[in-house]
Specification:
Shape: globular
Oligomer: single chain
Order of helices and strands: EHHEHHHEHHHHH
Helix content: over 70%
Largest sheet: 3 strands, mixed
Strand order of the largest sheet: 2-1-3
Low-confidence stretches: 1-5
Number of strands: 3
Structural class: mainly alpha
CATH class: Mainly Alpha
Number of helices: 10
Bound molecules: 2-acetamido-2-deoxy-beta-D-glucopyranose
Radius of gyration: 22 Å
């Protein structure tokens, strides 16, 4: 009997940021600008690192991979939400919604492992400089990148398979600007309260563990720098502070949304902007473009290009 009146949901409707049409039109310009900057900035970093053979060390491969992941991560949500700002009805197909969930958790999960690996890489470089080349060799770097993809894949596919097993038959309105697990699970026509807690704590615990590992490496780095290096201290301090800022902006909202799954959706929406839109644009600026080696590489690249066009 239950089966009989079950109609299958083929698309979802996003509520978007706010109800005001004027505000949404106004937000179109800043959001498209941020996306353009994310796109150009991250691809530029990848190109500079891959083309300059001075930058073929583990740290730069990790940075290039981080930029690549950031570029993909913001492409999963930002173009859709930006064009939706100008649309009256913001719909997404059921498949599109599942792809967003898969994409955000796959790339977000991989990004967390890459950030932890980068924290570990800096810890080894600063606290165990004499052993650096034996601890972080190319092989290990490639291995760690693979681990990040595998963890991201497992983390996301398990959740999507669980959601695909749920019946969706009635409500279709997702009160956000992209499909995220807690909001979509709320729409299933079965009681998902317990399942939601289990799934959310999966993401929450994963984010918290990565965050703690990162904080441990940064604490070691800061202590080492403060205790043993007089002249490099202020530079290392400012680098570490900016890294820690990005880490807090990325992990803070994730941990908050998944572990303290409160029902204040405007807070969730506001926080989701940070890990889907703001960190991908900040990462190249903070991790890469402040780095002197990269600045030199950009100069070399510029010289190479102008040399070639003159010839
Ligand atoms: C990611 O890292 C691997 C291994 O270190 C490297 O070979 C590859 O070129 C990197 N990928 C990108 C897009 O930078």
């Amino acid at each position: 009997m239950e089966e009989a009146n079950k109609s299958v949901v083929s698309e979802f409707i996003f509520q978007g940021f706010c109800t005001s049409k004027e505000l949404q039109i106004f937000l179109f310009l800043p959001f498209s600008t941020i996306y353009l900057m994310t796109f150009v900035g991250n691809l530029f970093v990848v190109v500079v690192i891959l083309t300059d053979h001075h930058l073929h060390s583990p740290m730069y491969f990790l940075l290039a991979n981080l930029s690549f992941v950031d570029f993909c991560l913001s492409s999963v949500t930002t173009p859709k939400l930006t064009t939706d700002l100008l649309q009256d009805s913001k719909t997404i197909s059921f498949g599109g919604c599942m792809i967003q969930i898969l994409g955000v958790h796959f790339l977000g999960g991989a990004e967390m492992v890459i950030l932890v690996t980068m924290g570990y890489d800096r810890y080894v470089a600063i606290c165990k400089p004499l052993h650096y080349s034996s601890i972080m060799d190319r092989q290990k770097c490639i291995g760690l990148i693979w681990v990040s993809w595998i963890i991201g894949f497992l983390h996301s596919i398990i959740q999507v398979v669980i959601i695909l097993g749920l019946p969706f038959c009635g409500p279709r309105v997702v009160d956000s600007f992209f499909c995220d697990i807690p909001l979509v699970m709320k729409l299933a026509c079965v009681d998902t309260d317990t399942l939601t807690i289990v799934i959310n704590s999966n993401s929450g615990i994963y984010a918290t563990t990565s965050f703690i590992l990162l904080m441990i490496s940064y604490t070691y780095i800061l202590l080492t720098v403060l205790l043993y290096s007089k002249n490099g201290a202020s530079k290392a301090l400012s680098t570490c502070t900016s890294h820690i800022t990005v880490v807090v902006l990325f992990f803070g909202p994730c941990i908050f949304i998944y572990l303290w799954a409160v029902n204040i959706t405007w807070v969730d929406k506001f926080l989701a902007v940070f890990y889907t839109i703001i960190t991908p644009v900040l990462n190249p600026a903070i991790y890469t473009l402040r780095n002197n080696e990269i600045k030199n590489a950009i100069t070399r690249l510029g010289r190479g290009l102008s040399g070639r066009s003159l010839a």
